[in-house]
Amino acid sequence: MKPIILCFKILFLNLICALHFTVIGQNIYDYSHSLRYARYLFSCEDYALAGQEYFKAYKLDPSNSQILDSAFYALMKSEQYSSIIDISEAVPDTALVRSREHVIYSALYQNDFRFANLQINKLKSEQAAAANKWLLSSMILQSPSASIIIDEEMQQDTICVKIRDLLEKFNHKPPVRRFLYILSSIFLPGSGHALAGELNSGIKIFFMIGINSFQAYKTVSEHPDFLLYPAVFATVAAGFYAGQIYGAGKLAKMKKQNRKEELKTEVLNILKTIN
After folding, report:
1. Out of 18, 21, 69, 78, which could bridge 99 as a Cys pair, Cβ 3.0 to 4.6 Å?
2. Residue 61 DSSP label
3. Which of 195, 191, 196, 184 is nearest to 206 (CA)?
4. Contacts from 53-61 at CB under 8 Å and sequence distance 24+?
5. Mean pLDDT of 103-118
């Protein structure tokens, strides 16, 4: 009886070993297949799928941070910034040492300044000099009208100087004051649009209000007992007048926002050269 039990034990152990090595073999195959497929997708410029395949390979070998860096690089090429942030929150912090700048860039692009500043503070302990340009960029993108002081160390960094020059250029532009656009439109119809750069629209508005106002005055003078036509012309003129005041305020708001977006785009384009 004992030899039979011993045989069953040996058979059971062999079965466990076989299953174990099967799983290991499958993982090795999946790992090498994901890497090969990711490189193929990257060469085909399908960066989003390449990033996903690289991340699959990383999950099979979490100790290889270079693969994670490749995944982030591919995702950045496909502008999948939110995916980079999600992945960075899911992996151990030690795995981000090679890829932290990709993560910071993505957070700044997504306006997630809390997460960006958290990663910048971690970068300081890893690469103090590299952290300066990211800190400067984060401060500018959070408050575009801020006055940023660059220390001597930053003055030696070309990227920091470029970003500082952009900020000075932004701050030297005349400020966009919404109430001035509205006030201008009240006293001179169409002038608010002209101030916002919409000169053709401003001229059209001015003539539309002027023509309809003149027609209303003309018809009421010629036919004082028939007020339908004057009422129609006056209503059209009033509608254009009220609309252009609202439009001037909206254009001023858009112009202010566009300036911020232009600054953000230029800063991020400069930072993109780091990666």
Report:
1. 69
2. -
3. 191
4. 55/87, 56/30, 57/31, 58/91, 60/27, 60/30, 60/31, 60/34, 61/31
5. 88
